[in-house]
Write the structure tokens for this entry.
Amino acid sequence: MAHLATIGALSKKLGGGSGLLTAWVGMPDPLVAGQLALEDFDTVTLDMQHGANDIHSVALGVAQVTLAGKPTIVRIPVGQFATASRVLDLGVAGVIAPMINSKEDAKAFASFMKYPPIGERSWGPTIAFGLTGTEGNDYMKAGNAMSVAIAMVETREALAAVDDILATPGIDAVFVGPSDLSIALSHGANVDPSRKDVAEALDHVVARCKAHKKAACCFAPSPLAAIELKAKGYDLMAIGTDFGQLRSGARAQIAIARGTA
Ligand code: 3PY
Ligand code: MG
């Protein structure tokens, strides 16, 4: 059975303040991605930057998530744009690239995400053929619109260049990393994504996204932060991570069992 509609759903649903929720998976066992895909998330993100995923766990995870009827996003490691093409070949619907700080970074990222004339993605959608049920030209024609390129804005340089990044052909969305941004804005004094200067930057980024008619995404450190981001007009939020959810779930249950809750 073909899953073209499942994978294509991310590009179709993202935009207009859609407020989608993504799971954030750093555990490399595809069981974790598959289980979270069965919950009420719109999409599942596999993290190769700070999570423990590698190309093999992504190949297995994207299959589980797709078969559960959800599109998969992958966050690649910093600067490893060739990995963006590789994970698209595995059937991923969107790629988040961290630390995109300039027009040049955005152009390089987009070139690995899109086929000509927008970019220079190399041909070879091995597993994506099977998952989408397409072949040859059909995949090639659908590929650029279906593959969502999401550039992370999480430094002072990126904030200053946000219009250039958004104007880059092939960039579909930006994703704010509020923790790194809080470190950058405080010149390394602290990491605190709830700070006022970070909130102001979040307002600025979503306004620039709207002006460019591109999607705004952000990591929400808590579910309450996700509610605020949706109210600001954000289109996609991650709510915590699998590691964080496991720890907080365990701690809450232990506290009840020990009578210390
Ligand atoms: C950040 O907050 O810096 C992130 O990269 C979120 O994952
Ligand atoms: Mg970051």
User: Anything to note?
Assistant: The chain has one domain: 4-258.
